[in-house]
Design brief:
Elements lengths: L8 H40 L2 H34 L2 H35 L1 H4 L1 H30 L4 E3 L5 E3 L2 H5 L4 H29 L6 H35 L1 H8 L11 E8 L4 E8 L2 H7 L20 H30 L7 H10 L2 H16 L3 E3 L3 E2 L9 H30 L17 H4 L1 H4 L2 E2 L8 E2 L1
GO molecular function: electron transfer activity; heme binding; metal ion binding; oxidoreductase activity, acting on diphenols and related substances as donors, oxygen as acceptor
Subcellular location: Cell inner membrane; Cell membrane
Protein name: Cytochrome ubiquinol oxidase subunit I
């Protein structure tokens, strides 16, 4: 069989990887920021002894554990696809990406896994200092994990530091050049900031939900909303600045991706317009019904009204990325970024007027914007990955030459299975997380026993139903 439902094996493999990555990307983008938030909450508890911070820690650590688990499971599935659907790519690029992926496991995943249990269950067993250290190590581990993964992805975008072997493999020649490739610093800063902003919006959305439910006297709700709005107010403008720097780096190393993002089918030697909206038509190489601002694109990208920008007409059509997808995913990402900044600025205004916990329309907007970080990071990923097509290693290895010699029916069947299983399993997990979020952090959160693991490991206290969370809680019957 040559195709499956009208699609060939390469297209189906791309859809499958895109689907699984989109699911997976949601979880690390949350855990990276949430791990740092938990570390801050725990540090504030140790410094102030305010039970509210401990209550918030226990409220969010349960959600973190579930999200972390779903992220690990969804990530394992992606690794298998390198061998099943993209074996040619794995063979050719394995000498470069294999060690980098191994470093991620050795330096980041083991760090997270080693300290995760202590963070979740060990407060009453190892002492507050070691528990704080474990919590910080989990946060550091998530950031290190992102660093290695983004180094791999950035090398595929801006490859350097390699030589070609006689068997067609990409062999490492300079590991520093490979790891610290030209787009890596910008991509890392942009992605980490996006994770922190995503977490702030989720936490702010949950806090706003409870404020709208009349729980403004709950100190935990007030603190989580206030902290989230501070984060949004500071990080959202920073993210826009970092995004602009990343865009300029992309213009230098991947100009055709920027041309697709901007909808520039034709070159503009004396100033390019900024196309706000329109319908890119790749067949006619035009953007229909476009709304544009003359020369503004050149001003943004070259800092000159008359700056020259190359268009997609400078490369063959079979090397052009799918413009419509890149054009619109970029606008979704940027549009949400400015909305996030608007939420942060509005919160500053409400805070200055002393109405942060009474601004009902701000709370409604914060609830609506709660999941926007996930949408933005997926839109950004689509812009990055679809924008580099038709290359899997930009300018060197084409996607069409990277897939496994599989029948389309085999890939299509596994794709359908993935869709069904993912929506059932991960849909259930997300539903449970939303159920946890629907309940406010109550004072009783502080009395949940951190060490309540398996009975044989928890000691006699668990058998008798006692809690040992802090000195004030010792021996309290449940």
């Amino acid at each position: 069989m040559q195709d499956f439902l009208g699609l060939d094996a390469v297209t189906l493999a791309r859809i499958q990887f895109g689907f699984t990555v989109s699911f997976h990307f949601i979880f690390p983008s949350f855990t990276i920021g949430l791990a740092s938030y938990l570390a801050v909450l725990n540090a504030l508890w140790l410094k102030t002894r305010d039970e509210t911070y401990l209550r918030l820690f226990r409220y969010w650590v349960k959600i973190f554990a579930i999200v972390f688990a779903m992220g690990v499971v969804s990530g394992i599935v992606m690794s298998y696809q390198f061998g099943t659907n993209w074996s040619v790519f794995s063979d050719k690029a394995g000498p470069v990406i294999g060690p980098l992926m191994a470093y991620e496991v050795l330096t980041a995943f083991f760090l997270e896994a080693g300290f995760l249990g202590i963070m979740l269950f060990g407060r009453s067993k190892v002492g507050e200092g070691l528990h704080m250290f474990a919590t910080a190590m989990v946060a550091v581990g998530t950031a290190i994990s992102a660093t290695w993964i983004l180094s791999v992805n950035s090398w595929m975008q801006t490859p350097q530091g390699f030589i070609m072997g006689e068997n067609g493999q990409y062999l490492p020649a300079d590991w520093l050049e490979i790891i610290f490739n030209p787009s890596f610093p910008y991509r890392l800063a942009h992605a980490l900031t996006a994770s922190y902003l995503t977490t702030a919006l989720v936490v702010g959305g949950v806090g706003a939900w409870h404020l709208l439910r009349g729980r403004s006297r709950n100190t935990g709700v007030r603190i989580m909303f206030s902290m989230a709005m501070w984060m949004a107010a500071v990080v959202a403008p920073l993210q826009i600045v970092l995004g602009d720097a990343h865009g300029l780096n992309t213009l230098e190393h991947q100009p055709m991706k920027v041309a697709a993002m901007e909808g520039h089918f034709q070159s503009h030697p004396d100033g390019a317009p900024l196309i706000l909206f329109g319908l890119p038509d790749q067949d006619t190489q035009t953007v229909k019904y476009k709304i544009e601002i003359p020369k503004l694109s050149s001003l943004i990208l070259t800092h000159s009204w008359n700056g020259a920008l190359s268009g997609l007409d400078t490369i063959p059509r079979d090397q052009q990325p799918p413009v419509a997808i890149v054009f619109w995913s970029f606008r979704v990402m940027v549009g949400l970024g400015f909305l996030m900044m608007g939420v942060g600025l509005w919160s500053l205004w409400a805070r200055w007027r002393g109405q942060l916990y009474d601004a009902r329309w701000l709370h409604r907007l914060a609830v609506v914007m709660g999941p926007s970080g996930f949408v933005a990071v997926i839109a950004g990923w689509i812009t990055t990955e679809v924008g580099r097509q038709p290359w899997v290693i930009y300018g060197h290895l084409a996607t069409a030459d990277s897939h496994s010699p599989l029948d389309a029916a085999a890939v299509g069947t596994s794709l359908i299975a993935f869709v069904v299983v993912y929506f059932l399993l991960f849909g259930s997990g997300v539903a449970y997380i939303l159920r946890l979020m629907s309940k406010p952090p109550e004072p009783r959160e502080a009395r949940i026993k951190d060490g309540a693991g398996p009975m044989h490991a928890a000691g006699l206290g668990a058998v008798h139903g006692e809690t040992y969370d802090s000195a004030s809680d010792r021996g309290t019957a449940q």
